[in-house]
Design brief:
This protein is of the alpha+beta class. It has two domains: 242 residues, Aminohydrolase, N-terminal nucleophile (Ntn) domain (Glutamine Phosphoribosylpyrophosphate, subunit 1, domain 1, 4-Layer Sandwich); 222 residues, 3-Layer(aba) Sandwich (Rossmann fold), CATH 3.40.50. Helix content is 34%, strand content 24%. Helix 12 links the parallel strand 20 and strand 21.
């Protein structure tokens, strides 16, 4: 899961791009990059957080009224500067590109690009595959001047070859900005406009919050299978050339998106309140003697407040978060996740001592964070610790862009709720039912009828994920994990 931004502005866009990717830093903390264009491409990419990568020298150097920014969370590739986006190819025309998602047939396409088109990839990043497929399809157009229908035809070629999830923004030098979303619309992508004097600027982003902060308005979702081309006259052309059932990723509303974003017409904040309300009904069934409701900050706060309100219980912010520690779930290695959990959260002892506490979190993935938090609560003197997840049990690998690609990464994979509770040392574990998760989203947008909940139920909407594909992805992921462990020693 990554964050992308593309801007066609009226003045230098570096500061807007910087603010934009800073607003979606939560989507990836491994690396970041910005490329701008003023007749030539100017690039700055690096490892780490946005605030640590860019400096005043970049402000002076990254000139141009067109640019793309990216913040990366690694799935394909093991991370590092060579895998930071955006990526560039000099032919045809010169193209830069960034994406959010995961290409399932990455290895096959990498081989095909070399054997058929003599294109060599210089990274392990799957956006380089999308970029080179797109470039190859543009080459087939055999024209010196690209028209909108040429762009649409090239993206159609991408849709036909690239499997998986991808929301993409690209710039073709001197021709225009291109954005498209995979035919299933698994990953989010929005766009908006802004009046800048006599000119109108356009921007694309993974989340609406980025566009809000840059004062873009008239924000809309890029539809599944939709292609938008903003030409050099600032005329916006768009079409949908391939559509499937819209199946957006449920984990966006559970965890990834900021609460002040709107994803596919669903207010993330309101959705999480709905999740709290529905989970409260599930908790009632267990007739627990609860003294206080405590959220795991930050994503679980909205749901926990609603749970306490519905159950008539005290609500306390008893876990204090260190704001300078990143999101442990999206850290690039298991070692970095484990070492940062206790640095990230510190308990207020008085709120746990001699109490039966209900701790609310967005999910239970590997169980490391949950177990550490419960151990903190018990060390503070809690009598009983109940743990509630406002999402269902995670049991199946994600192949579409969340770093959960091996079945062994899920504590609930082959365990009952009672066994999970024992594993993480809780007195009881309560999960949100899957139909209630879907209902919480649909309460805000009834037009959404299908979702990607593959990590919960094992159904992959692209219908091309076989057991062999899952086995191959697991082998590749374990290889990456091994390299990460070796580098961290």
């Amino acid at each position: 899961m990554c964050g992308i931004i593309g801007i066609y502005g009226s003045n230098d866009v570096f500061e807007d791009l910087y603010q934009g990717i800073l607003a979606i830093q939560h989507r990836g903390q491994d690396s970041a990059g910005i490329v701008t264009y003023d007749g030539r491409f100017h690039t700055k990419k690096g490892n780490g957080l946005v605030i640590d990568i860019f400096d005043q020298e970049n402000v002076r150097r990254l000139k141009g009224n067109i640019g793309i920014g990216h913040t990366r969370y690694p799935t394909i590739g093991g991370g590092g500067g060579e895998d930071a986006q955006p990526f560039f190819v000099n032919s045809p025309f010169g193209i830069i590109m960034a994406h959010n998602g995961n290409v399932v047939n990455y290895s096959e396409l990498k081989t095909e690009l070399f054997e058929k088109y003599r294109r060599i990839l210089n990274s392990d990043n799957d956006v380089e595959v999308i970029l080179n497929v797109f470039a190859s399809e543009l080459d087939k157009q055999k024209t010196k001047t690209l028209k909108p229908h040429h762009i649409f035809k090239a993206v159609k070629g991408v849709f036909e070859k690239v499997r998986g999830s991808y929301s993409v923004v690209a710039y073709i030098a001197e021709l225009g900005l291109v954005a498209f979303r995979d035919p299933f619309g698994i990953k989010p992508l929005v766009y908006g406009e802004r009046e800048d004097g006599l000119l109108r600027s356009y921007a694309f982003a993974s989340e609406s919050v980025s566009l809000n902060l840059m004062n873009f308005t008239n924000i809309k979702d890029v539809k599944p299978g939709e292609i938008l081309f903003l030409d050099n006259n600032r005329k916006l052309h768009k079409t949908r050339i391939q559509t499937k059932h819209h199946t957006p990723c449920l984990f966006e509303w559970v965890y990834f998106a900021r609460p002040d974003s709107i994803i596919d017409g669903v207010n993330v904040y309101k959705c999480r309140i709905n999740l709290g309300r529905l989970l409260a009904e599930e908790i009632k069934k267990h007739d627990l003697n609860i003294d206080v409701v405590i959220p795991v900050p930050d994503s679980a706060r909205d749901a926990a407040i609603e749970i306490s309100r519905k159950l008539g219980l005290k609500y306390r912010e008893a876990l204090v978060k260190n704001r300078y520690i990143g999101r442990t779930f999206i850290m690039p290695s298991e070692k970095s996740r484990r070492s940062s959990i206790k640095q990230k959260l510190n308990p207020i002892t008085s709120e746990f001592k001699n109490k039966n506490v209900l701790i609310v979190d967005d999910s239970i993935v590997r169980g490391n964070t949950s177990r550490s938090i419960i151990e903190m609560a018990r060390a503070c003197g809690a009598k009983k610790v109940f743990f509630a997840s406002y999402s269902p049990p995670l049991r199946f690998p994600c192949v579409y862009g969340i770093d959960m690609q091996t079945h062994t990464e899920f504590v609930a994979r082959d365990l009952s709720k009672e066994q999970v509770a024992k594993k993480i040392n809780a007195d009881k574990v309560i999960y949100q039912p899957l139909d209630c998760l879907k209902k919480a989203v649909q309460m805000e947008n009834p037009n959404l009828t299908e979702f990607c909940g593959a990590c919960f139920e094992g159904h992959y909407p692209t219908d091309d994920i076989t057991s062999d594909v899952l086995a191959r992805i697991e082998r590749e992921r374990k290889g990456v994990q091994k390299k990460q462990m070796e580098l961290s020693i």
